[in-house]
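<discrete_fold_record>
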Amino acid sequence: MEGEMVMERSKFDNLLYLRRLNREMNSRKSAVKKSKKRSRVKSGNFHVYVRGFESRRVFVDDEDHMMFLVIVNEVLKETNFIIYSYIIMVNHFHLLIETNDLPAVMGQIMFRYSLWYKRKHPAVVKVFETPYGSSPIYNPVRFKDCFLYILSNAKRARMCEKHEDFFWSSANQYFAKRSHLLDSYIEVNKSYALQEYSSEEAFNLDVNTYKPFRKDGKRTLRCYVSDSYVADFFKRLVNNKDVRILDNAEIVYIIKSLRYDCSATYPQIRAHINKSLNYIRKVLATP
């Protein structure tokens, strides 16, 4: 009887030890997760960029564009941030702002527009990709590069021949002789543009000829290709085969060929390959 009690006690001790060990392992895992959590700078100048969920279209018509600007202006007045430039594309937007609380500003903008968009399109579950992207700006050279990058976005995407032809950006507000129509929706700080450029012609020339920098400091040479060109390139790759019967190695080869040999964008690749954007990113991240 006494031996049995000793055996039961040893089992109980082992059980307590295993539970304590399990607790310690869980606490270590949570500590690692917390250490990997991204810390974001809250105050200063920022280039902010937000894309629609799975790169879907989030600005369908003029009403969507106008409501987005109204919402940004509301948050601007409530939080007292400064907006130097912006552009609203089909499935994403860019902002160049100065603020003391970036998470609060972007949280309100994304939350309010998401509410508006979901009411208008009840079938939509998620509007924006999260978290939003932001790059702090610490020097004048970087500030000017971001300023021109944002305003030239539509021209570089071949949505217009000259940046002046694209309506939904702050570019046409800086040198307008009369009050621009967009001034009634959003208050843009024009001081930087007016100090940096002596005339509208010099400003337009700089934006229209702008090419973004790569991380190595050189100008990027990437060109944007049409959907029809990508479709023709894809047909040559698959050679009349059914995509559904291709194995994983063939799909990986096609994705990399479309990206590196054809310069196709992620949404263009996704249109031909029945894979998610996250899968495509993972494939392209591997050597």
Summary: Residues 227-285 form one domain. The chain has two domains: 44-208, 227-285. The chain is about 50% helix and 10% strand. The first helix runs from residue 2 to 36.
